Every structure is written in structure tokens, then in C-alpha cells.
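With this grant's support, we have settled on a layout for protein records. One resulting record is reproduced below.
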Amino acid sequence: MEWEFQIPTPERVGQEQRAFGPCWFYCGFRSGPVVWIGCLTSSGVAAPLYACDACLRQLNAMAWDFAEAARAEPLYEPTGEGDPS
């Protein structure tokens, strides 16, 4: 089955502004309520990025994983021994 892009149409879901259209992330372009999360620019082309709730939760978890890894203490510190000086 060939995928055809559908431009999301505005609607309201709960208290947040949503659109109905395809998610651009992990769920494989499943159509449903999506939220605009930014813009993608690639090789001179720009497109809006939309994500569904499940993919937003995954992106949020990945962002926290990154932040925690960046704050973590290094597993070792180089001692300088064996430096070829």
C-alpha cells in the first residue's frame, strides 16, 4: 500500500489545539489527532512536523534520557599515564 501525505486539518482535542492527520514519528504515519512540534528543513525543503500522543511520550522520554546522560559522571577519568609526550 502506497502512503499518501494528508495535510492535517485543525480540530480541538481537550484543551490543546490539535490537527487530524498523519504522525511523522514512530507509529508509522498513523492518522489521528496530532500536534505540531516544529519544522524540518532538509536539502532546501521545509515541512511541518506532527506527532501523536504516543510518539510525544516517546520523544519526551528520549529527551529526559539524553539530559540524564549528559549530567552523569564519567565512568573513568584519564590519568595522563602513557601520554606520548
Notes: Strands lie at 9-13, 16-22, 31-42, 45-51. Residues 53-71 form the longest helix (19 residues). The mean pLDDT is 78.
